[in-house]
Design brief:
mainly alpha, two-stranded antiparallel sheet
Length: 399
């Protein structure tokens, strides 16, 4: 009954909030329309890798009955397994009974998760931002000025993990501002880690902050830790079923293209990769051609300063405030495995997609910084971010 009452209360609040309704309609329209246009530029689509796996799971098998790609595939005993965290497959399970939707599954799932994350950008902005029109500028940054938009419209199962992680991180940040229930924070971080396992590291600053504020630290510690332990158990079980060990993710064993294999040989995560990744993150760019759309993004990725320059506003959020310190700590910790990873910014992706692990925390810090200053510079940086992300959409659709 409590859950039902909460839903009824949320619906009533939404009914009395025309700004939120308009925002939801705008996000749903532009995401759905952009996804449809992108889908028509990709015909024929072929079989959806995750849809195949979801059907196979309902038939009691964890390997793939057929392949659509050989990247990140681990072959053991003549069976092919996808090296990937468990959460991206889950939304597809709901489509298994509806075979007529299977051809559209990649677009349906990605758009649904992306739109949900875009919707969450407004309540996030309202909680951390200065209020008024600034909150809608911040929401536009979250939904249309980050790679959330370009990752959604691709209908790619690799990108789905990022979309799920962003949605869950936005919800965790909203919870952190509001009630800070230990079990909810643990659940949301644990679920995000089922999409992007390295995000489990952000439990450290949030957990320490919860304990510092708690009267009953034991109760809070248990409530926070249990969902995280549950996520670890699910991940370990998923890896054991596929690869025979709860500690084997499959990424060390999977087939990748020779250039990536050479980098992986230096370490899946290694300090060796740090200089290249930082250089790409700061200085990766574009070249030019004489045909539409003229600007050609580097296949390795682009600088975050080019795709989302508005994140620079976050430097105005002082670390002297405890809340800011928790958010900065989460952003930095989430960035560490990203910059130590052998895969760069994400092969053949517009922007630096692995940065989406820590971008939600920076968006919250941007909102906090804008409480002190929201002027023409901030508007220009957000507008540039939206413009560059929209260019990414144009490139992905018409390249």
């Amino acid at each position: 009954m409590r859950a039902l009452d909460a839903v009824v209360s949320a619906v009533r609040r939404l009914r009395d909030d025309p700004g939120a309704i308009a925002w939801m309609m705008l996000v749903a329209f532009f995401y759905a329309f952009a996804t449809f246009v992108r889908s028509q530029a990709s015909i024929p689509w072929g079989s959806d890798h995750m849809m195949i796996l979801a059907v196979d799971l309902t038939q009691g098998r964890s390997d793939l009955s057929s392949l659509t790609t050989i990247n990140d595939i681990v072959t053991i005993g003549g069976r092919n397994y996808q090296a990937m965290s468990p959460l991206p497959t889950v939304p597809y399970l709901f489509l298994v009974p509806f075979q007529v939707l299977w051809p559209w599954s990649r677009w349906i799932v990605s758009a649904s998760i992306g739109i949900s994350a875009g919707w969450a950008a407004l309540p996030l902005a309202r909680r951390y931002g200065p209020g008024g029109s600034a909150d809608y500028w911040l929401a536009a940054l979250g939904a249309f000025g980050t790679l959330l938009f370009t990752l959604t419209i691709e209908g790619d199962f690799y990108y789905l993990a990022h979309l799920e992680a962003v949605l869950l991180t936005f919800l965790a940040l909203i919870e952190w501002h509001d009630r800070r229930r230990a079990w909810v924070m643990g659940l949301l971080i644990g679920l995000a880690a089922l999409a992007r396992p390295t995000l489990l590291i952000v439990a450290l600053p949030f957990g320490l902050a919860l304990l510092a504020e708690a009267r009953d630290r034991f109760k809070v510690a248990v409530a926070f830790a249990l969902p995280l332990i549950g996520a670890l158990v699910v991940t370990g079980w998923w890896d054991y079923v596929r690869f025979g060990s709860p500690l084997e993710t499959g990424y060390d064993l999977a087939w990748v293209e020779p250039p990536l294999a050479a980098l992986r040989a230096q370490g899946l995560f290694s300090i060796v990769h740090l200089p290249t990744n930082l250089a790409l993150f700061i200085g990766g760019g574009f070249s030019v051609r004489d045909a539409f759309p003229w600007l050609v993004p580097s296949v390795d990725g682009q600088s975050i300063l080019l795709t989302t320059p508005a994140l620079l506003i976050a430097v105005g959020a002082s670390i002297r405030d405890r809340q800011n310190l928790v958010l900065w700590s989460a952003a930095i910790l989430a960035a560490i495995p990203v910059f130590l990873y052998y895969g760069g910014g994400g092969a053949a992706t517009y922007g630096f997609r692995y940065a989406m692990d820590f971008v939600p925390f920076l968006v919250a810090l941007v909102a906090i910084a804008m409480r002190e200053r929201f002027g023409n510079l901030e508007r220009v940086l957000i507008a540039l971010s939206v413009a560059f992300v929209c260019y990414g959409y144009v490139w992905q659709t018409y390249k």
